[in-house]
Every structure is written in structure tokens, then in C-alpha cells.
Amino acid sequence: MAEPVKVLLVDDHQVVRRGLRSFLEVQDDLEVVGEAADGAEGVARAEELRPDVVLMDVKMPGMDGIDALRRLRELGNRARVLIVTSFTEQRTVVPALRAGAAGYVYKDVDPDALAGAIRSVHAGHVLLQPEVADVLLSQEETGGGQGRGGSLTEREREVLGLIADGRSNREIARALVLSEKTVKTHVSNILMKLDLADRTQAALWAVRHGAAG
Known about the structure:
The chain is 50% helix and 14% strand. It is built from ten helices and six strands; from the N terminus they run βαβαβαβαβαβααααα. The chain has helices spanning 14-24, 39-49, 65-75, 90-98, 111-122, 130-138, 154-164, 169-176, 180-194, 199-208; strands at 5-10, 30-36, 53-56, 80-85, 103-106, 127-128. The protein is globular.
């Protein structure tokens, strides 16, 4: 039996953390390994506990969730961060995704859907609720790979299409009969050529420019 997915809860409201813990603890394949009440504590706990997935609120006292996410990336922490928040404005959604969030869901998400979201981002997928994707797609991506799709090789276009389908590197490797290392190289080349920061941007670029499968 596979090891359970280790989850860290970062939210300044104790009642929210308690509710999340109560639900997640009944999931056989998910394990809550710790909690934090603000971004700074969340970073410290993530470094200490090395969770697989961090459920991170955005608006918190002191260091907020976006700054905490940036700090985790600076430290090289490999935890996948799923933003769970009640804030839906573009000024909140876009910075979180640009900072490297693996997904963004709202606090009114169905509990079973939240468990599925945790499993999905742990598997390497990018997960956005439809309205969140709409927010990100609606902003003008000036300088963000506009018109540069022609610089991609045919193989890179195949990889980009699978990224847009939400496939992880492992799944892409299996689909294209490549090694994961080769897939990682293709992904890096795609991001460089399109001047994009991460897989989320790549997936949305593909949708916007008709490169999705």
C-alpha cells in the first residue's frame, strides 16, 4: 500500500484548520502532519515536516500566503502548494499562480472535491477551478509568449498539449515513450522559448493559443 500523502494546513483561522483536519483525517490516503497560523510559521513547518502538499490560505497576518509560497520556492522546498481561499479577485489569483501555486480552489469547495484536488496536485497536475482559469486567461499576457509558438519543435508541441491536459511529467513520459528526464528537458525548453514561468502558465498559454490537445 502506498504511503499516504502528507498534508500541512496553513490558515490563520483555527476553525478552518480544525474543519480541514477533521475531514482529511478520515481519508485513508491523506495524512495531516501539521498546522500553521501564518505564512512565516507555514514556511518553517514545511521545512521541518517536508509535507507533500501544503494547503495555503492567501490573506494571513504577517507573511501572507503568496510571500510564503515565494519563500518556499526560494528555499527549494518541493511541496506542492494548493491555495484554498475565499478571495477570487484577479489581484489575488494571478500573483499566487505566478508564485508557483500548483492549484487554486475556494473554501466553499465540496470536501470530496478538495480531497481530489490534493491528490491531483500531488500527482503533478495543475488544478484550477474553471472560474480561476477564466481570471488568468482574461488578463493580457503582454510579453508572455505571444506569437512564439512557432519556435517550438513538434515534440515540444506534443509535450505542451499534454501539459494542457493536466498530465504530469511521468504521464507525459509514458504517453510519448520518453524518459522523465527527457520530458523535463522539453518542459524547460518550452518555458524558456515561450518566456513563461511555470507549468500553469504553459497550460493556459496552450489553451489560449489553441495548442491544447
